[in-house]
Amino acid sequence: MAQHVGIDLGTTLSGLAYLKGDGTPEIVPNSDGERLTPSVVYFDAHEDVKLVGSAARDGGDPERTIFQIKRYMDDPDHVLEIDGKKWTPAEISALILSKLKRDCEKIIGEIRDVVITVPANFNELARKSTIAAAEMAGMKVKRLVNEPTAAAVYYAQTQNVQGRVLVFDMGGGTLDVTILEVKGGSIRILTSEGARHLGGGNLDDLLVTAFEEQYRAQTGQGLYTDERHRRRILQSAEDAKKMLSKLQRVNDTVANDQNSGLARIDLTREGFEGLIRKMLTRTVLLVEQALDSAGLKVSEVDHVVLVGGSTRIPKVKKVLEKFFGKTPKSCGNVDECVALGAALFAKSSAKIQEVCNASYGTLAMIYNAATGEEKVANSVVIPKNTVIPCSRSQVYQTSEDNEKVIEVDITQGEDEDPRFVDVIGRLTLEVPPNRPKGCEVEVTFSYDENQRVQARVLDKASGRVKEVAVTYRGAGVLSEEELQRRSQHLRAMRIE
Amino acid sequence: MSSKSVPEKPARRISEGSVLEKVAKGEKMVDAGKSPKVVAKAEKKVSAEVLCGIQPKMGKAEVGARLKLLYRRYNRGASSLDAKMRAESETMLDAIVEVREKFFGEI
Known about the structure:
The complex is a heterodimer.
Chain A: E1 5-9, E2 13-19, E3 25-27, E4 37-38, E5 40-43, E6 50-52, H1 54-59, E7 65-67, E8 80-82, E9 85-87, H2 89-108, E10 113-118, H3 124-136, E11 140-146, H4 147-159, E12 163-170, E13 174-183, E14 186-196, H5 200-219, H6 227-244, E15 249-255, E16 262-268, H7 269-275, H8 277-294, E17 303-307, H9 314-324, E18 329-330, H10 337-348, E19 352-353, E20 360-367, E21 374-382, E22 390-398, E23 405-412, E24 422-430, E25 440-447, E26 453-459, E27 465-469, H11 480-491
Parallel strand pairs in A: 1-10, 10-11, 12-17, 14-19, 17-18
Antiparallel strand pairs in A: 1-2, 2-3, 2-4, 5-6, 5-7, 8-9, 12-13, 13-14, 15-16, 20-21, 20-23, 22-25, 23-24, 25-26, 26-27
Chain B: E1 11-13, H1 18-24, H2 38-43, H3 48-51, H4 60-77, H5 83-104
Helix pairs in contact in B: 4-5
């Protein structure tokens, strides 16, 4: 059986790595001979087979092809219907993981326990969905680890660095910025900040718009009318983006799907940098937020490390170099280092101290003793960046006489304003009747190593206790029963 | 004001369901005046500065601090479980970038 396996379940590419006998991590290729597998699933109309990877990405009907499902792992209502069957994001991800497991087992033997990487900004639901996907694929998640953490583990080990490291991880769908401290053989995460929809895919979308504008200017017509053709243009745009990382100017000839003629698309690096400028400003805002969150100044960061395919864009490096006044270093192979780091993490997790990625608390009526003012606010119990695993308690008081039920909302987010946090669960505890207001209720949150939260409420007077792990409801969320049933079904599927 | 400032009487839990209901209905519960009602204003094409609550009298440092607060708030909102909040956050993030470029220059 393969030991110390790490999986990077990426937005655009996924990879599996394991630790060799000499302790070095290595990527395991899939059955198509590729080191990384495109995170794309195709549902064939004629054969009962699910294609995963390059074959799915390059050849299929776009109406039957699922791209970038990872973007929807945190959406409780996201469901895809194909041939009358509904698929949740966790199930689609399970197909990708199944392909990796089945292919790689042929090379390294049975794969059971794995470390899977997730974006630092993945919320509770997305983490739960990732664990469910692995279970459906027949694997047990030993740990979820944040992608920048995995990359940093790989970087620290291979480059032998010490000091404070800022990892800038710009992948296909998200940007994560993590700051950590390497001392001897130990790594301490200081903070992680993430931004959704700030990855290579968003830059591709901007380029598609540029293609469209140039096509319309030359022909007076639109560039595409259906999804199949838009996909082709998207691929051309992605190719152009990659070339612009090496060349100052590229051109392409494209046609629309209505025989409106050809148009020559001219793109310059300068023009591309103008297109993505606002996106890059958002990346700087996130870096600033990470520094604030860690209480650090720019000068207190010793190394800036680049991870993810989008960091190949020269302007990304330039912006960071200008901001930090030092040249960012590439994390070796920016596409593979997350999976490689996950394999290393699988063995050395004890030497890595992680922190809560978000604050957890409850909604409460806050009383200001000085002003007498009352307002509903998010009362944080576990602050972001608390070392995990951890457990924290806070005591509240009931607000009305004769309360029969105490309800505690579980919130995720550090903002005091309830509109800017998510209520991710509610705990209900029945209490004895006929009690005055002001009875003490102790709320305890526990946060485990996989960044999953549990809540416990104790009514101090009666001693009654209730404890729950957070569960979600929505069309895109599987119940435990459905999870078991669909796991069995999925394991019998033909996946290639 | 957080509950931590009054530890001996930290907070009073309000009764069943009422917090969520009041917040969902948009009742003026928590400093509503400080946060712009972005969706309604965005539809009227209000400027980025107005969306971000930037006043003419604000100095650069104040604008910077305001943008940091808004960015933290709406970057988180962009991955909210609430679809409406996600959409609202995208509008606000665009406005934040625009104001930042105006006051602090392009990157």
